[in-house]
Amino acid sequence: MTLGTFLAIVGAAIAAGLAGIGSAIGVGKAGQAASGVISEDPDKFVKCLILELIPGTQGIYGFIIAFLVMLKINVFGSMVALSTNAGLSLLAASLPIAVTGLVSAIHQGKVAASGIALVAKKPEESTKAIILSVMVETYALLGLIVSFLSVFLPDYASMI
Asked: pLDDT (tens digit, 9 = 90+) per residue, 108-118?
């Protein structure tokens, strides 16, 4: 395995790992809030569950980028021997979703927990709580798009 291939695998691990950590924290915060509400009124389970699930998407986005990086280097077959520059490029391509996934999922979990508190008092306002939580998702989606596009950038260094 070359250094470049190793760096690409590290990038994939960082994308999945950091975005997954953010999702775990966010879902955990929302789940704690949901547990309290559901213990008082089990009929609010579905509305709380929807809000709890939303911060989990960043982990999925990180996994998607990690999977694409692994496909690009053919980790499931005979791995491609990448140059150091190519490996660094894939590592760099993994960072936008890793960072935005980590940070946005944590904050989305906080917004979702607040939304769950709203559902506890006014269940008819659950749509507003969902919209507020989804707004944080925008930045994870931007990170996903940048990482996705970066993974498929041509290797301009080889063209010079």
From this structure: 999 999 999 99
**What CATH architecture does domain 3-153 belong to?**
Up-down Bundle (1.20)
Helix axes 45-53, 84-121, angle to 10 degrees: 160
150, 92 Cβ separation under 8 angstroms = yes
The pLDDT tens digits of the residues spanning 38-64 come to 999 999 999 999 999 999 999 999 999
Integer Cα distance of 92 and 12 in angstroms: 10
CA 19 from chain centre, in angstroms, equals 4
**Domain ranges for the chain:** 3-153
Q: Which two tokens stand for residue 151?
A: 């993974």
